[in-house]
Amino acid sequence: MSIPPNSELEALRPALVRFAVLQLRNDAAAEDVVQETLMAVLEKPNSFAGQSSLRTYVTGILKHKILDAMRSNRREVQFDGAVDGFDGNDRQSDADFIDALFRPDGHVVDMPRRWGDPDAALEQKDFFRTLEVCLEKLPPKTARIFMMREWLEMDTADICMELQISSSNAWVMLYRARLQLRECLDLNWFGRKN
After folding, report:
1. What is the pTM of this model?
2. Distant-in-sequence, close-in-space partners of 111: CB < 8 Å, separation ≥ 6
């Protein structure tokens, strides 16, 4: 099997660029890795075996291009220690959000609804569109760290080095991201099924 027409690749471009910008925090670098990804796909059209969707195939290549760019940036640029968005302003609203989910005794206020069969849900394209919308609703730094951990599969130590944060800060942000994603998915995906 070979790569479908260029129009299908072009249709994927906006989502690829959004994800690359989220991870690289630089529009030009994001455009570069997306361009490299699309060039890699076009240079070897017979590499696409059709065992997955075109989007899955292309984002898999993008994942590796982003990791390469992050490694390259780490060697080239020294951080000044300040990471945009970690100024404490969001912490109060995050703390309020988390506190509202629990009773004073530590138990959950509302048990999450039954999500049905997660494997079946993962097979549905609409689920991934809803997940993408939920990720876009997260604060940029929270979404970035979540995607670094869960999609790019980076180790916590690498994430901490990349963002210049402590491991405890990273784990707190991941916890908050998961809570917010759970809430968003519960309302916008699993809740609509009941």
Report:
1. 0.51
2. none
Model confidence at 22: pLDDT above 80: yes
In this prediction, residues 32-49 reach a mean pLDDT of 85
Do 61 and 39 touch, CB atoms closer than 8 A?
Answer: no
The owner of tokens 């959950």 is 108
Q: Lowest-pLDDT range, 34-38, 114-118, 133-137? A: 114-118
Residue with tokens 């696409």: 48
Domains and CATH numbers, the chain: 6-76 (1.10.1740), 89-193 (1.10.10.10)
Q: Is 102 helix (H, G, I), strand (E, B) or coil?
A: strand
Q: Compute the C-alpha angle 68/7/123, nearest 5°.
A: 70
Distance of CA 62 to the CA centre of its chain: 13
